[in-house]
Amino acid sequence: MWYYEKKLQYPANVSGPDLAMAKYLYAQYGGPDSELSAAVRYLTQRYTMPIPQAKATLTDIGTEELAHWEIIGTLIYKLTDGVSPEQMRAAGLGDHFAQHDNALYPHDAAGVPWTAAYIQATGDPIADLHEDLAAEQKARVTYEHLISMTNNAGVIETLSFLREREIVHFQRFGETLMLVKDYMNRKHIF
Amino acid sequence: MYKPEMVKLLREIQAVDFAIYELALFLNTHPNDRKALEDHNTLVTRSRQLKAQYEDRFGPLRLDSISKYPYQYINDPWPWEIEY
User: Fold this and answer.
1) Mutate which of A1, A3, A7 to disrupt the B interface (most B C-beta within 10 Å)?
2) Residue B84 lies in a domain
3) Which class would CATH give A19-111+122-187?
C-alpha cells in the first residue's frame, strides 16, 4: 500500500505568470510520455518481473513517478491559479477552461485525454524493460523541449531536476535489464 | 499563514529524503554495496529526527503521525500551496 506524505519530492515554484507554459506542461501531466504514464506503466509491469531487484526497481521508480506527477500538477496549478477565462483563452487554454475551468485534468499539451494505450505490459521482462528505457529517454527529451520554451526561472529549475531523474532512472533500468538477462541465462530455458 | 521556518525545515527534509530515495534506487540493483547501505541508514536516522522536529512544530506529515486535538493532518498548507 501507499501512504501520502504532505511534501513534494522537490520544491516547485513559479517566477511570475507564464500561462502558455501551463499548457505545454500538460505534456508531462497527461501525455504519452508523461509522469502519469510512467507511474502506471512501471507499477503495472512489476507483477511479472522475475527477480527481486526488478520488482523493487519498478515499484520504487513507479512511486517516484507519482511524486513527479504531483510536482508537474503543482507547477500547472500555480501557473493557472486565479487566472481569468479570458487569459486562459488567450493562452490557448480556452478548450480546457470550457470543460475543466481552472481544475487540472490528465490530458496532453493539445488536450488529448490520457489513455492506457500509451503503455504496455507484455509479461516479458526483457520487452517491458526495453519499453521502460525508451520511456525514460522520451521523457528526458520532452523536458528539454519544455525547458527550451520558457524563461521562467522557477519552472526551469524544477524541470531540470525532473530531467535529471529520467537519466538516473534510465541507468537503473539498464542495470535491471542486465540482471534480468543474467537470471534468464542461468535458468537455461530451451 | 505558514512560517518561513516551516518552509526551511521542509526543504531540509526534502533534501535528506531525496538522498535516501536516490540511494535506495541504487541499492535495488546493488544490494551488496556496504558503503551505500551505511549512507542510506545514516540518512534515514537524520530524516526521522527532522520529521519528528517538523511534526512537533508544524503538524502531521502523514495520517499515521500523532496529532493534537483537533485532528491537524487536514490543515493548510498542502504541498502544492507552498512557496518554497
Assistant:
1) A7
2) no
3) mainly alpha
Cβ contact (<8 Å) for A3 and B63? yes
Q: What is the ipTM of this complex?
A: 0.97
- The alpha carbon of residue A68 is apart from the nearest alpha carbon of chain B, in Å, by 12
pTM (two decimals): 0.97
Q: Does A8 touch chain B (CB under 8 A)?
A: yes
Per-residue model confidence (pLDDT) at position A16: 85
Confidence of residue A151 (pLDDT cuts 50, 70, 90): very high
Cell of A149: 520554451
- Cα torsion angle, A73, B82, B51, B22, sign: positive
Whether B69 is covered by a domain: the verdict is no
At residue A109, does pLDDT exceed 70?
Answer: yes
Q: How far is CA A147 from CA A1, A73, A115, A159, in A?
A: 34, 16, 25, 7
